[in-house]
Amino acid sequence: MNLRTKKMTYTALLVAYTMVAALVMPKITIPPFSATLTLHVPLMLAMLMGPASAALVGIGSAIGFMALSPVIAARAVMHIVVGVVGAYVIKKGWRFEIALLVTAPIHGLLESLIVLPFGYSLYTAFIVTGVGTIIHHCMDGFIAIVVYRSIRIVVKDGIFSKA
Length: 163
Prior knowledge:
Elements: H1 3-24, E1 28-30, E2 33-35, H2 40-47, H3 51-65, H4 70-91, H5 96-115, H6 122-154
Antiparallel strand pairs: 1-2
């Protein structure tokens, strides 16, 4: 199997996990904020494969959350931007861990801004959603780092960057 086919296969698996996790994993909810532990892990791993993979996983996340709530789905659309930014940071030669730190405040800010048109207060948008998203991003980032380091030991086919 060539590298391109492997990358498409891994991307499809990450999209599938994201869509299923959005529907079945337990959530912590303080509207408009919600946290589904491990949901950002596929997006973060996709960053290592490049902007296209990250964007596709972000789209899968948004589709997965459409069944739950328009506010949560809108927040999930922000995963596309976060994933693409993270992928470009890695592509520029920055380490995976640094890319996760760089994208955390971007993630929080974008999800804060996207809930404002739904009528939420600035406090609810920026403190509850923004800070909550950054904390959730960091928790999932830790899990993603552990998974990534484990994958690098087993998968030696060049799919994941040397971030």
